[in-house]
Design goal:
Strands 2, 3, 4, 5, 6, 8, 9 and 10 form an 8-stranded antiparallel beta sheet that branches. A two-stranded antiparallel ribbon has the order 1-7. The chain contains 3 helices and 10 strands. Helix 1 packs across helix 3. It is 19% helix and 31% strand. The radius of gyration is 16 Å and the shape is globular. By secondary structure, it is α+β, with helices and mostly antiparallel strands.
């Protein structure tokens, strides 16, 4: 079953979709400029109430930090970053999980660079790119097998305004790309809502994955 969260789909993308793509989106995603600190980035991350039926907090509880302008790493590895968050949820029968990593940047230009770096670093030579509708402003999806568990996974790296999200959905038997797409759309809409400054309400509660 395909689960969707309204308002987050851009164009149908080729596997290598990057910022240089010239394809016209069927539904545009606003390129929002808001900077998100850690407090706001935490709100953008899915909470337990917004997750599908029966999902629960996994091995990584929500954690992260702000990166002030005088942080030493701002001169190199965390250039342009304002905050970072990560978390993991396990599915209802503990046969799968989704790992989510969110990185917020000062501006769209920095986020574009951050997206390109994360897109490259999140992939392994053993993975393969797969076709998936664009999520956020730009995204790329891949599939492969976890180096830790050996289980199949589907991952997506996307940019939503000033935020870059990297997500991996792993399952014991079958990591369904449609399940990953539903979770990614949920995350993208929550980021947009956080950037717009209002309540973050996007949810998959009541759905089953």
């Amino acid at each position: 079953m395909v689960l969707t969260v309204a308002g987050c789909q851009g164009s149908d993308s080729a596997p290598g979709n990057t910022e240089r793509s010239t394809r016209t989106p069927t539904v545009s995603t606003p390129d929002l400029l808001a900077r998100l600190n850690f407090a706001r980035l935490k709100q953008a991350a899915p909470d337990l109430q917004s997750m599908p039926v029966g999902w629960k907090v996994g091995a990584t509880e929500l954690r992260g930090r702000d990166y002030p302008k005088n942080a030493p790493c701002r001169a190199n590895v965390c250039a342009g970053m304002t905050s970072h968050a990560e978390l993991q949820y396990d599915n209802a029968d503990s046969t799968g999980n989704v790992y989510i990593e969110l990185t917020a940047f000062d501006d769209v230009q920095s986020a574009r660079s951050g997206y390109e770096e994360r897109r490259k670093s999140y992939a392994s030579r053993q993975d393969r790119a797969i076709s998936m509708p664009t999520v956020g402003n730009v995204s790329m999806a891949r599939t492969g097998f976890s180096k830790v568990s050996g289980q199949p996974f589907v991952s997506i790296v996307m940019r939503v305004g000033t935020v870059v999200a990297a997500m991996a959905y792993t399952h014991e038997q079958n990591a369904d790309p449609q399940d990953m797409l539903a979770l990614a759309r949920l995350q993208a809409e929550r980021i947009q809502q956080a950037q717009q400054g209002g309540r973050v309400t996007a949810s998959l509660a009541g759905h089953k994955i």
